[in-house]
Amino acid sequence: MNTSLVEIQVVSAENVAVTDDTLTLDLADGRAISLPVAWYPRLLYATPNERAHWEWSGDREGIHWPDLDEDISVEGIIAGRRSGESQRSLQRWLEARKALS
Fold this sequence. Notes:
Elements: E1 13-18, E2 22-27, E3 32-36, H1 41-44, H2 48-52, E4 55-57, E5 62-65, E6 70-73, H3 74-79, H4 87-100
Antiparallel strand pairs: 1-2, 2-3, 4-5, 5-6
């Protein structure tokens, strides 16, 4: 079996936009990478205001949504990685959200 290793070159991130359906990351080299919001359940269940309230982590190495306690790395977005959150963790988070409303 042949195994191929792909080196991911992380370039600077410029902007993030989240709609009901899509997470889009604009990169400094002109690319825009879009992934389904469904890959990130906390973003999927968030309100538009919660999705819009994000901040950079580190030196633009990641994106943090403080209202959602969600962190996604720029490298992960470029690599097309989905959320690694377990169903159990997500369920606890959803129950806590419901209790606050």
